[in-house]
Amino acid sequence: MDTASEKLSLVPLLAAWEALGPEARGRPKYLRLAQAFTSCIQQATYGPGGHLPGETEIAAALPIGLSTVQKALSLLVEQGMIIRRRKLGSFIADARHQVPEVHVYRFRDADTGQWKMPYTRVVDIQRVPTAEFGPLLIGFEAEHAIRIDRLVWVTGSQPAFGTMFLRCEHADSLLERPLDDLHGISYHRMLWEDFRVRTATVRHSSRAELLSGQACAHLDLAAPHVGMIWDAYEHDSQDKLQLIQRFELPRGHRPMEIVETKPGF
């Protein structure tokens, strides 16, 4: 699990707010605040992974209301500059957490038609009994699996909640690593490079359904929330199930394209 981290100082943000020129001062306050945050990030006074001060702290330090702070932070989330974690707060996004490749899901830029590579942030990893998940994990034919919960997003979009299940013999070692080491990893590449396991076929299943409690908590949604749940079962050339991905997308989320490109390592 994530551990508590020291929050960033408000001093650079206050200085950036005061340094805004006359043109910026004529804009809505939430845009001015977003610009001040952007300045701190671009000048590296707020570095990747930094824990932002709380919304009430920011509102108290500046001549703005809480709703203005929330609107500015929401804009920065949409721009991919920060990520928000329910109960933990907001953090500066890290470009190193952008995955280098994707194979069975993709997001496309609506304007350019180009693929947008997603960012991922692992929020939990644990060894779980497969029996607790019923038909979802029965294909593993094993008593336990490694479950990895992640936030998955692209610039300009709210995150989706993703859960990945891997075989224990392939992923037990990940339990010993800090969560920060797991952000942005390509697990397909890890399976190939470490175990010579490659996806050969993918079976998909999707439906409209209530999102899980974990998804609602991490996506800051009021439960119950009906969204889209998509499962992908990935088999190797011997038709052995090696990997299961589940994505939970809230209503109104950017469309996800499902493809069956095989990893070409």
> Under CATH, the topology of the largest domain is which?
Chorismate lyase
Strand order of the largest sheet: 5-6-7-10-9-8
Count of structural domains: 2
Helix content bin: 10-25%
Binned strand content? 25-35%
Mass-distribution shape:
elongated
Major sheet summary line: 6 strands, antiparallel
Rg to the nearest angstrom? Answer: 20 Å
Distance between termini?
31 Å
* CATH class group of the largest domain: Alpha Beta
- How many helix segments? 8
Strand pairing plus helix content: what structural class?
alpha+beta
CATH architecture of the largest domain: 3-Layer(aba) Sandwich
Mean pLDDT: 85
CATH superfamily of the largest domain: Chorismate lyase-like
Total beta strands: 11
Helix/strand order:
HHHHHEEEEEEEHHEHEEE
Low-confidence parts: none
Structure overview:
31% of the residues are buried. Strands 5-6-7-10-9-8 form a 6-stranded antiparallel sheet. It has a 3-stranded antiparallel sheet with strand order 4-3-11, with no helix packed on it. A two-stranded antiparallel sheet has the order 1-2. The protein folds into 2 domains: 11-93, Arc Repressor Mutant, subunit A, CATH 1.10.10; 98-258, Chorismate lyase-like (Chorismate lyase, 3-Layer(aba) Sandwich), CATH 3.40.1410. It has helices at residues 11-18, 22-25, 29-42, 55-61, 66-78, 168-171, 187-195, 213-218; strands at residues 82-85, 89-92, 105-108, 115-116, 119-129, 144-153, 160-167, 201-210, 226-235, 241-249, 257-258. By secondary structure, it is an alpha+beta fold. Helix 3 (29-42) crosses helix 5 and helix 4 (55-61) crosses helix 5 (66-78). It starts with 10 loop residues before the first helix and ends in a 7-residue tail after the last strand. The chain is elongated and about 65 Å long. The chain contains 8 helices and 11 strands.
